Amino acid sequence: MSDAQTPNTGVMRIVDCPGTNSSEAGKSSACQGCPSQIFCASGAAAGPDPAIQEIKEKMKMVKHKILVLSGKGGVGKSTFSAHLVHGLAEDETKQVALLDIDICGPSIPKMMGLEGEQVHQSGSGWSPVYVDDNLAVMSIGFLLNSPDDAVIWRGPKKNGMIKQFLRDVDWGELDYLIIDTPPGTSDEHLSIVQYLRAAQIDGAVVITTPQEVSLQDVRKEINFCHKVKLPIIGVVENMSGFICPKCKTESQIFPPTTGGAEKMCQDLNITLLGKVPLDPQIGKSCDKGKSFLSEVPDSLAATSYRKIIQRIQEYCDMHLYHEGINA
Amino acid sequence: MEERKENNNLAGVRHIILVLSGKGGVGKSTVSTELVLALRHAGKKVGILDVDFCGPSIPRMLNAQDKDVHQCDSGWVPVFVDQEKSISLMSIGFLLEKPDDAVVWRGPKKNALIKQFVNDVAWGELDFLFIDTPPGTSDEHISTVDALRTCKPFGAILVTTPQAVSVGDVRRELTFCKKTGLRVIGIIENMSGFVCPHCSECTNIFSKGGGEELAKHAGVPFLGCVPLDPQLSQSLEQGRDFMQEFPQSAAFPAISKIVVQLLEASSSSNS
Ligand SMILES: Nc1ncnc2c1ncn2[C@@H]1O[C@H](COP(=O)(O)OP(=O)(O)OP(=O)(O)O)[C@@H](O)[C@H]1O
Ligand SMILES: Nc1ncnc2c1ncn2[C@@H]1O[C@H](COP(=O)(O)OP(=O)(O)OP(=O)(O)O)[C@@H](O)[C@H]1O
Ligand SMILES: [Mg+2]
Ligand SMILES: [Mg+2]
Ligand SMILES: [Zn+2]
């Protein structure tokens, strides 16, 4: 049973998984020895999970669904997600929600100032936790007993949780549902895309930092998006330079040695939504569970966040417009 | 009999160390890379097994991106970084057709490859084998610890950055270690403060002290603070040997101190 194979050259190569919807599923040489081969070959993986239909019904109440993704860890996905919802919810007429599907490392409760909060069950499902009347949050962090609780779960259990978050949470009518993800291209990512396929995702915002160590993983994430036909709204370059508060000189702590996100976006023909500099106040606001946008509104980073949020809103409005035409 | 055969390839490895963190991007791969370089300079034979399948960083950080893995009688030959073959590596990065290929795998597939990585790589004789992991407490971590059960890993090094958001995730990783019976060698606080190269002002971009506090709170050794150091990130970008080229740089003494503690811990365990 071998995923890696030795062609005649003696060099080991991974033959890529053709994907569960492909006609090659379960039959390609990559599938030999894959523990999922039976599902794939039988077509069971592509077959309809009744939850997908239920989720589609539920999501009819949600106008816009956006994923926040990155191949790389710690680039600021959760920080960006948190500020995106804060920014969107400043318009009191909009209903906004944030769903955290980082099952093993949920940061959202702390960043939103909701540590220790719990989820309650009502007749219409699980009630999310509210930051404001128009800003709801759901995370596995609300289901744990103590901050030391580890969620030591393999894929299927994580997938089950994500399904429940989508199907059983009583979000009500929403203008925006923002979904924060863990790094990578694995169970959580496949599941969220699969479960929301019928309900349609507006697109993904991809977060990176300027250095190649990060970009090389982000290119993989972009390939993943193409593979699962997830539109990319654009890329945010975070931690982009640091201005010393004393001498005002800029240092490239994470140097863009291969041209940063700008060059990558040009090469791959995707939108660069903007750059956010390193600012010590961002981490502080996150640790306090406050919005950096209202704590330090005049900073360079806050201005940059706002511009990016506005571009995402514009994208969504366009998207809705197009859907209206197609319908 | 079967058990012994399974782990034959690890029989010559004296200390197996997992590098873990609940949090992403805190410097797990950086720590694995620099410790291996420093131990090589201390005359040790070392290896890294990279079980981060979706985001393998080790090949680039050690300037080995274009190398291939070959097969031999006793299994897979790891990639050697240097001529003397004192650093050996195994990573999914070496197995991909194109570097940007996404490895879109659910748990079971990852678990199968981890078994192969643990059992089939012919490491030969090594003083230290580091296992670089992705963030979290999921398939990769459970499977690695399972696969290593019979060969008693030396322990785990936990990496965190100072701020509360990161420390919170590392608390959960400590619970993982406790539950799986993995000894915690110690905690490293990385990206701890930045000294401006122009005016020497120190800014705590990601706060300060969270890792040390956590170590105290959890009653595990604290191995030290590594500052943010642009020469370190630059070296990793280009796959250069920071421990050889930048002894004057801010992160150097901190990493050296960690290596001394590691050598002490490992020699006392030998006696
Ligand atoms: N522009 C910034 N300036 C300073 N600190 C930042 C910035 N962006 C994020 N941070 C800090 O960096 C850390 C990592 O950010 P965050 O947790 O959002 O990353 P992530 O991509 O969600 O990580 P993970 O992969 O673990 O989910 C946090 O402590 C956050 O406060
Ligand atoms: N002390 C430091 N000073 C400057 N840059 C650093 C330092 N430590 C790590 N970095 C840089 O930060 C980035 C993240 O580090 P690294 O990739 O090692 O984290 P990781 O924990 O392995 O991330 P992942 O969770 O994605 O595997 C890298 O570009 C690395 O070069
Ligand atoms: Mg996160
Ligand atoms: Mg890593
Ligand atoms: Zn300065």
From TrEMBL, chain A:
<dbReference type="InterPro" id="IPR019591">
    <property type="entry name" value="Mrp/NBP35_ATP-bd"/>
</dbReference>
<keyword id="KW-0479">Metal-binding</keyword>
<feature type="binding site">
    <location>
        <position position="244"/>
    </location>
    <ligand>
        <name>[4Fe-4S] cluster 2</name>
    </ligand>
</feature>
<dbReference type="GO" id="GO:0005829">
    <property type="term" value="C:cytosol"/>
</dbReference>
<feature type="binding site">
    <location>
        <begin position="71"/>
        <end position="78"/>
    </location>
    <ligand>
        <name>ATP</name>
    </ligand>
</feature>
<dbReference type="GO" id="GO:0051539">
    <property type="term" value="F:4 iron, 4 sulfur cluster binding"/>
</dbReference>
<dbReference type="InterPro" id="IPR027417">
    <property type="entry name" value="P-loop_NTPase"/>
</dbReference>
<keyword id="KW-0004">4Fe-4S</keyword>
<dbReference type="GO" id="GO:0005524">
    <property type="term" value="F:ATP binding"/>
</dbReference>
<dbReference type="Pfam" id="PF10609">
    <property type="entry name" value="ParA"/>
</dbReference>
<keyword id="KW-0963">Cytoplasm</keyword>
<feature type="binding site">
    <location>
        <position position="34"/>
    </location>
    <ligand>
        <name>[4Fe-4S] cluster 1</name>
    </ligand>
</feature>
<keyword id="KW-0547">Nucleotide-binding</keyword>
<feature type="binding site">
    <location>
        <position position="17"/>
    </location>
    <ligand>
        <name>[4Fe-4S] cluster 1</name>
    </ligand>
</feature>
<comment type="similarity">
    <text>Belongs to the Mrp/NBP35 ATP-binding proteins family. NUBP1/NBP35 subfamily.</text>
</comment>
<feature type="binding site">
    <location>
        <position position="31"/>
    </location>
    <ligand>
        <name>[4Fe-4S] cluster 1</name>
    </ligand>
</feature>
<dbReference type="GO" id="GO:0016226">
    <property type="term" value="P:iron-sulfur cluster assembly"/>
</dbReference>
<dbReference type="GO" id="GO:0140663">
    <property type="term" value="F:ATP-dependent FeS chaperone activity"/>
</dbReference>
<dbReference type="InterPro" id="IPR000808">
    <property type="entry name" value="Mrp-like_CS"/>
</dbReference>
<feature type="binding site">
    <location>
        <position position="40"/>
    </location>
    <ligand>
        <name>[4Fe-4S] cluster 1</name>
    </ligand>
</feature>
<dbReference type="GO" id="GO:0046872">
    <property type="term" value="F:metal ion binding"/>
</dbReference>
<dbReference type="InterPro" id="IPR028601">
    <property type="entry name" value="NUBP1/Nbp35"/>
</dbReference>
UniProtKB/TrEMBL annotation, chain B:
<protein>
    <submittedName>
        <fullName>Cytosolic Fe-S cluster assembly factor NUBP2 isoform X1</fullName>
    </submittedName>
</protein>
<dbReference type="GO" id="GO:0005829">
    <property type="term" value="C:cytosol"/>
</dbReference>
<comment type="function">
    <text>Component of the cytosolic iron-sulfur (Fe/S) protein assembly (CIA) machinery. Required for maturation of extramitochondrial Fe-S proteins. The NUBP1-NUBP2 heterotetramer forms a Fe-S scaffold complex, mediating the de novo assembly of an Fe-S cluster and its transfer to target apoproteins. Negatively regulates cilium formation and structure.</text>
</comment>
<dbReference type="GO" id="GO:0005814">
    <property type="term" value="C:centriole"/>
</dbReference>
<dbReference type="GO" id="GO:0005930">
    <property type="term" value="C:axoneme"/>
</dbReference>
<dbReference type="InterPro" id="IPR028600">
    <property type="entry name" value="NUBP2/Cfd1_eukaryotes"/>
</dbReference>
<dbReference type="InterPro" id="IPR019591">
    <property type="entry name" value="Mrp/NBP35_ATP-bd"/>
</dbReference>
<dbReference type="Pfam" id="PF10609">
    <property type="entry name" value="ParA"/>
</dbReference>
<dbReference type="GO" id="GO:0051539">
    <property type="term" value="F:4 iron, 4 sulfur cluster binding"/>
</dbReference>
<dbReference type="InterPro" id="IPR033756">
    <property type="entry name" value="YlxH/NBP35"/>
</dbReference>
<dbReference type="GO" id="GO:0005634">
    <property type="term" value="C:nucleus"/>
</dbReference>
<keyword id="KW-0547">Nucleotide-binding</keyword>
<dbReference type="InterPro" id="IPR027417">
    <property type="entry name" value="P-loop_NTPase"/>
</dbReference>
<dbReference type="GO" id="GO:0005524">
    <property type="term" value="F:ATP binding"/>
</dbReference>
<keyword id="KW-0479">Metal-binding</keyword>
<feature type="binding site">
    <location>
        <begin position="22"/>
        <end position="29"/>
    </location>
    <ligand>
        <name>ATP</name>
    </ligand>
</feature>
<dbReference type="GO" id="GO:0046872">
    <property type="term" value="F:metal ion binding"/>
</dbReference>
<comment type="similarity">
    <text>Belongs to the Mrp/NBP35 ATP-binding proteins family. NUBP2/CFD1 subfamily.</text>
</comment>
<keyword id="KW-0004">4Fe-4S</keyword>
<feature type="binding site">
    <location>
        <position position="196"/>
    </location>
    <ligand>
        <name>[4Fe-4S] cluster</name>
    </ligand>
</feature>
<dbReference type="GO" id="GO:0016226">
    <property type="term" value="P:iron-sulfur cluster assembly"/>
</dbReference>
<keyword id="KW-0963">Cytoplasm</keyword>
